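The following block was generated as part of the benchmark described in Methods. Ligand: 4'-deoxy-4'-aminopyridoxal-5'-phosphate.
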Amino acid sequence: MIPVISKLPQTGTTIFTTMSALAAEHGAINLSQGFPDYSCAPELIDLVNKAMLDGHNQYAPMAGLMALREQIAIKTEKLYGAVYNPDTEITVTAGATQAIFTAISAVIHPNDEVIMFEPAYDCYAPAIKLMGGVVKSLELEPPDYRIPWEMVKRLITNKTRMIILNSPHNPTGTILTRHDIDELIALVKNQDILILSDEVYEHLVFDGQEHHSMARYPELQSRSLIVSSFGKTFHATGWKMGYCVAPAHLMQEFRKIHQFLVFSVNTPIQYAIAQYLKDENNYLSLPDFFQQKRDHFRRGLEQTRFKLLPCAGTYFQSVTYEDITDEKDVDFAIRLTKDIGVAAIPVSVFYRKGTDKHVLRFCFAKEQETLDKAVERLLKV
Ligand code: PMP
Ligand code: GLN
């Protein structure tokens, strides 16, 4: 065997794969990995079908179908007031994951420092490390997981190249507030710091609150690569379709990587989504749709011995379980899957140090019946 020096020696298989496999093995209700258990809109499937039958089965343009980029520009301007040029400032990607990897590879050089907040979605740190960058992370504290901006300030050095933000936040369900935005604007002023803003849950904000996209604030927009996901927005995570918007000088570098990583992404699905986006109700209806699920699931969980954490956005509900056991969250999540028949994500895996605050994350993008069955089982804990 030819020896290979691992580029990510500490990395194993992701928790999403691990927990979904364990759930399948034990026939557990899978509230771990974040994906719906119901179908996306039949109209959308018809549109993909039509695009295929119409012969749109060859390579799309490298940056994405122009019709889709135009719709993304219209949506972004309508929602956040920012004007992006579809020609030079928008690229369609194979999900947000590819957009995040591409953005990090495009701008992070060896020894550049990247500030991020933990718990953090799992694909940020490996991408930074692969580019030779240095992860500077701050651990946030439940129940509110607020960003301590004074401490962020202290992390900044002349090597800080990027801050990664994720609002609405996976796994905690928190959202950035106007106060956070003001702090961020003050923090980056006169600094050469870019922002990678993971906004895949941009349409999943509840209780009438607004999503503070980086695109809303010119001081932030001008330094931001903003990433979103049609998988999340249109209940079709398996389609792996997303996009990045950024000012032209950043997008130019982004595309240099994108063109060699994937060149272009799924053509018929781009045709379909371009058409589907024309009806804004297809995304503006999402907060109500998911808020109902959140409220229903929370009412159920309130009857159990789990303690609910706040959930202002995303389709994840986190809970603490101090009153139940002092087991490690990973052990408890495995036991819940095997013995109770409900799979969750242990939140310690979103901390590089494995910090265990005894928090589990449940995905509520599920049929009401699924959520009810899960609660019924959790009542036995
Ligand atoms: N960022 C966050 C915060 C996520 O939860 C996910 C999972 N959808 C992604 C990025 C990746 O999105 P995609 O499935 O479109 O690659
Ligand atoms: N974003 C999804 C989650 O947080 C999982 C995506 C994946 O499986 N990589 O559950």
